[in-house]
Design brief:
This protein is an all-alpha fold. It is 64% helix and 0% strand.
Length: 132
């Protein structure tokens, strides 16, 4: 058993400030963590939140105009509606596909052969797009 497993390491305030200063001076948290053998991946971030300068950790601040929040809500609603419409369309497609297969089987036809023939006919006909 590793004897280090049961040992809680306590770092002095002076040491924590030294580490924070190095990060705030441009070293990455990971570089400083490895340099000093600091085991906890979140230790330095916690120290910086408690002892470091404001803004030394990367933060995202979002400033919104009043109408932007409404637009965001509208877009989220539209996404939900589109997802529901897509799901409904997929269900209808599966039902139509099943009906098609049943009709083909009732008529003694191979559904795949019928699909292939329909695709060939559709491709051989001139497109009606562009005609008024």
């Amino acid at each position: 058993m590793n004897s280090r497993q049961n040992v809680a390491i306590r770092y002095s305030e002076a040491f924590k400030h030294q580490v924070i200063n190095e990060v705030e001076s441009g070293s990455s948290i990971e570089q400083v963590r490895k340099k000093y053998g600091i085991g906890g991946k979140a230790s330095i971030q916690k120290w910086m939140k408690r002892l470091g300068k404001l803004g030394s950790l990367p933060k995202i601040i979002r400033v919104e105009k009043p109408d932007e929040k409404t637009k965001l809500k509208d877009l989220e609603r539209q996404i939900r509606e589109l997802k529901n419409a897509l799901a409904e369309t997929q269900v209808r497609y599966v039902i139509a596909e099943s009906r098609f297969e049943i009709v083909c089987e009732d008529q003694g036809l191979d559904p795949e052969a019928v699909k292939k023939k329909l695709d060939e006919e559709r491709l051989s006909k001139p497109s009606r797009k562009g005609k008024a």
